[in-house]
Amino acid sequence: MAGIYLHIPFCRRRCVYCDFYSTTREGDIPRYAEALAQELMLRRNYLEETDKNGNPYLPEIETVYIGGGTPSLLHPEHTERILEVVRRHYPVSRNAEITVEANPDDVTEAWAQALHGMGVNRISLGVQTFDDDKLRFLCRRHTGHQAMEAVEQCRKAGFDNLSLDLIYGLPGQTVGEWEHDVEHAIAAGVEHLSAYALIYEEGTALWTLRESGRIRETDEEVSLRMFDTLINRLEQAGFEHYEISNFARPGYTSRHNSSYWRGIPYLGCGAAAHSFDGESRQWNTADLDTYLERMDCLARTGKATGLWERETLTKEERYNERIITSVRTRDGLDLHRLKEDFGAEAAAYCLRMAAPHLQQGTLRLLPPAQQIPDGILCLSRQGIFVSDGIMSDLLMTDD
Ligand code: SF4
After folding, report:
1. Cα–Cα distance for residue pair 270/286, rounded to 1 Å
2. What spacing in Å lies between the alpha carbon of 103 and ligand 1's midpoint?
3. Domain-wise residue ranges, the chain
4. Is 22 close to ligand 1, i.e. is its CB under 6 Å away?
5. pTM score, two decimals?
């Protein structure tokens, strides 16, 4: 089992809070789509595994995720070309989850129909808020009404798996206004919701606005009330809270994100994309020109250097990664697997570090069962609000 992530680093304009790599040079999209196709063909063996007779084989691709940036800026013919290369060169499972991220104002009936027709079966809409003033402040391109319309167009085209992204703790936002956003999202009738607290990343316009005193960061206490409102309201509406920031109707968890949290290997293609093969991480250059030049050189000469960088994770780093990716999920940390993969000492260390949180009730230890003989460590409802501190306490550090 494996996944493929394809990064589309183009945005029509930059949002105030965003520090992801992306460019506004949409004219380069056709060339980029071809470069991506090249990379997919070239890196076919990245996900290769070996069977018991020592023969290499490619595991089934269970998820394909086209993210960005803004993948909905691609003309459907480019998306189709990329997916065609994926299907031709990789064993994509018949019921694979194929997601495309979209900006609501790019979603037209024709676009949604074209994507549905090429086998995309999940759309993730970057809505952030339904409040038009706040959307303008964030430099988003769409209105709240367009977000609702985008959901409708996707439904009409036949999509039965839609996700919305929301952000809370916007400058000046009240708990009541946030509640209004959550109600809108529920009314939209989507299957999946991701909600993140606004982060002030250094180097963004948002950071500068705060530093110059023109906006004020939302108080932590207000932000926690917003998170509490979100959890309560979505649970009442029938969503399962399956990861700190992610909620899904039963049967609609994001299979792609869940694979990241379960440590399943994935190949990431495109500028700034990351890959993981279970032991090492690899990442592509985050510069569009460098990426395109290197892929051109590869197409012409069959050779290219410095296409990506690689780092092999130490045992300690892999342990830390296991903590961060599993404690955050409803499934929690399987202590038996932890012991098997990292040794009894590492599992004992984890339990020692978890002890104060178990006492305070922010962590829970679910009793051993047949499949999981040492039990499961997971966040309690109270622990979800202080999850960063808990995870950091469980990590192994050099000192
Ligand atoms: S559309 Fe997404 S990737 Fe592009 S600038 Fe806005 S938040 Fe960042």
Report:
1. 9
2. 9
3. 2-261, 315-394
4. yes
5. 0.95
